[in-house]
Each structure stands twice: as structure tokens, then as C-alpha cells.
Write a structure and sequence with these properties.
Two copies of one chain form a homodimer. In chain A, a hairpin with a 3-residue loop joins β6 and β7. In chain A, strands 5, 6, 7, 8 and 9 form a five-stranded antiparallel sheet that branches. A four-stranded antiparallel sheet of chain A has the order 2-3-1-4, covered by helices on one side. Chain A is built from four helices and nine strands, in the order βαββαββαββαββ. Chain A is 27% helix and 40% strand. Chain A has 168 residues and is α+β, with helices and mostly antiparallel strands. β2 of chain A pairs antiparallel with β2 of chain B, so a sheet runs across the interface.
């Protein structure tokens, strides 16, 4: 099963390597990861998407919680949340195909942010499934390059992760 | 100096831990990191933002290039590029303050994606500096929770990272 785990950690060298090491030692492949600073610059937030069985994930969460730099581990999988991802897609677009691609871009409320004689670069933001759908629709034109941020997530409602009761 | 480095790697367990380990062993703190799959599902793409002196970064790049799972390392710092970041910001918003926050959201072409009696959650996408500016403007209201994806980047024009001549 796929899980979306948020880890709040102290913003220090080495923390990312330790967290990534915990997952790799158990053979988990991290599907996506987004790490950046938070509302408190001394704290970084990692959003980790990983697939695995419940038991192994539970053990990883326990080990994460034991790391001194880890402030909180929270699993958003079963919590009402808003998820978003951003992608930049460079797609083959001869001038005669541009109009079609611009239609797709409009329908997805995406944006064209760069243009060359043979390519368009598109910015799309939305739930992961929307980014996947956009990608599928652009594939027939030839995707030249694709970069995605990985999923980020916040709980619906007023509470922050720091205020939520630990669920892992 | 701040650098934005893209690393194309084989999509396998353990690669992230090795890459993160290289940076941490030299005492570099990764400021942001986004990792996800690419147009080729067997390849992951890491966008790493890191500050450090040229000499140490050059050594890290050389060591990255030696890792068997690393396909390409490319430094976008001096290359014309499009950069984007996505953030979700949960901000304190009593009903009487909502209108003001909605104005800021409109001006930044951001979106309100969740609402509670006391908070609003805003999605904002743009260059890193735009996300920083939005954050500063919302700070007086009280930022309750903030998650950012970290920067992602593509070169302007038709070429992909795989086609570009190595610059590190």
C-alpha cells in the first residue's frame, strides 16, 4: 500500500542521509520525496511517498521517531488532506501542433512557460492524479523532459502536523 | 554561492541515501531537494539546492559522477532556465480577515484550497522568490503551517539535461 509520510526534522547536515538510509536498509524505494524549510527555518519538512507492507513501515516509523533530529513523524494516508504536486513538462511541438497542445494546457489550467521552435515547456499543478493525466495526454506528442516535485500534503482544517496526535 | 544541481539516477532503493551521504560527509546542508520519477520510469530526477564554495561542490560532483547509479549530474546555476516551486500555506484567518487574505491570494494568482472557521489553506506556484514574497505577506496574519516542494528547474529551449554537455 502507498503511504504519504511527513517528517519534521531539525534543519542540519546529515539528517536527510540518515532518514534515507533507514528506508534503503529495509529495501524500501522512496517513490517521491520533497524536502524544504517550514514556517520555522530551524525545521525542515520531508514529504515521503513510499509503498510497502504495514509492518515494515511501522518499524521504520518507530526508528525514525528514535532519531534525535526527528521532531515528528505523521502518516497522512488515512487523514483528510489536500495534496498537490508540481511538474514541468517539455514536449515536442512543431508549430503546426502547438494549437492542440495549447488546448490541452488550457483545459488543465496549466501554463506554457517556455517556447522554442520545436518544443513547449508546460507548468502544471494539482493532485498527483491530475499531473499523471496531463502527462498521459502529452505523451503522444513526445515528452522530451519531465521534472516533478513529488507530492506535498497538509491536513484539511485548522490543525498543523505538530498539533496532531502521533499516528505512527 | 547557491547552486541548483540536477542529478539523474537509476530508480532503485539506496541511491538517495548514497547521494545524501555524499553531501552530508562534506558538511553541506541541502537547502531543498525534490525527487521524483521522470519521463522514463526507470530514472529518477533529483533537484538539489545547496550553498557552498566552488571547490567543495566540484569535488562532490566528481564523486556523484562516480556512483554507478548516477546517470548525469548537471549544474543549472549559470544556464538560462525556468524554475518553479509549489507551496501550501495554512494561515490564521478569522472571518473578518478573510477578505484581505483573499486579495493577496488573487494578486499572486494563488488559490485557496481549504477553509476552516479560523484558517485558510493557500496553494501558490512560481519562482522561489514569488513563494518567498507570498510567505512574507502572509506572515503578519500568522502562518500556522507551511510546506514547500523545493525548487525544480528545466533549461530554456529545446534541449534536455540528458542532451546537455556535462558542466560539472
Amino acid at each position: 500500500m502507498q503511504h504519504t509520510i511527513t517528517t519534521l526534522v531539525e534543519n542540519r547536515p546529515g539528517v536527510l542521509a540518515r532518514v534515507a538510509g533507514l528506508f534503503s536498509r529495509r529495501g524500501f524505494n522512496i517513490e517521491s520525496l520533497a524536502v524544504s524549510i517550514t514556517e520555522d527555518p530551524s525545521v525542515s519538512r520531508m514529504t515521503i511517498v513510499v509503498t510497502g507492507d504495514e509492518r515494515s513501515l511501522e518499524q521504520i516509523s518507530k526508528q525514525l521517531n528514535k532519531l534525535i533530529e526527528v521532531i515528528k513523524v505523521y502518516d497522512y494516508t488515512d487523514v483528510p488532506n489536500v495534496e498537490r504536486e508540481l511538474a514541468l513538462i517539455k514536449v515536442h511541438a512543431e508549430p503546426t501542433r502547438r494549437a492542440e497542445i495549447m488546448q490541452i494546457t488550457d483545459i488543465f489550467r496549466a501554463k506554457i512557460i517556455d517556447l522554442s521552435e520545436r518544443t513547449l515547456t508546460i507548468e502544471v499543478t494539482g493532485p498527483v492524479a491530475k499531473v499523471d493525466a496531463m502527462r498521459s495526454l502529452l505523451e503522444p506528442y513526445g515528452i522530451k523532459e519531465l521534472v516533478r516535485t513529488g507530492k506535498i500534503v497538509l491536513a484539511r482544517g485548522a490543525r498543523s502536523a505538530a498539533e496532531m496526535r502521533s499516528n505512527v
